[in-house]
Amino acid sequence: MYSSSEEGFQGDDQTGGAEAKPMSRDLHLDTGRLANFFKARIKNTECPFCEHDEWELPLQAGATGVGLPWACGKEYLRSGTPAVMLNCKYCGFVRLHSLSVLADIIVDDGSKARTLEVCDE
């Protein structure tokens, strides 16, 4: 099961790297499409550490995912691969899915879905 969190995480940039450019306020993560993608392509939804099957999608208001920084020596650039992060609700394991593979889940239509649940229909 997947769920979404309105609270998200408080950002505290300590990377010392370049700032990422903000996205349009009209863009958002379509959690319904994301749930359908996971249902179609993810066969084992259990956490690899605790084997529970309850995942949370922590989204900060207006966010479309997380950005993985690139390392350049001792510096980190905040312009790396964009991803969707899910947390296991039981043990806290964090898993990431690349947004470049998740076609059409970032949309620009004004509706801001927040609930992410996988249905068996």
Description of the molecule:
- The chain is mainly β and 121 residues long.
- It has one helix and nine strands; from the N terminus they run E-E-H-E-E-E-E-E-E-E.
- The longest helix is centred in the first third of the chain and has 11 residues, at 31-41.
- The chain has one domain.
- Helix content is 9%, strand content 26%.
What does the average pLDDT come to? 74
Shape: globular
What is the number of E strands?
A: 9
Helix content: under 10%
Q: Give the biggest sheet.
A: 5 strands, mixed
What's the layout of helices and strands?
Layout: E1 2-5, E2 28-29, H1 31-41, E3 55-58, E4 66-67, E5 70-72, E6 75-77, E7 82-88, E8 94-98, E9 106-107
Parallel strand pairs: 1-3
Antiparallel strand pairs: 2-9, 3-7, 4-7, 5-6, 7-8
Give a brief description.
The protein has one helix at residues 31-41, and strands at residues 2-5, 28-29, 55-58, 66-67, 70-72, 75-77, 82-88, 94-98, 106-107. By secondary structure, it is mainly beta.
Properties at a glance:
single chain; 121 residues; mainly beta; 5-stranded mixed beta sheet; two-stranded antiparallel sheet; 1 helix; 9 strands; 9% helix; 26% strand; globular
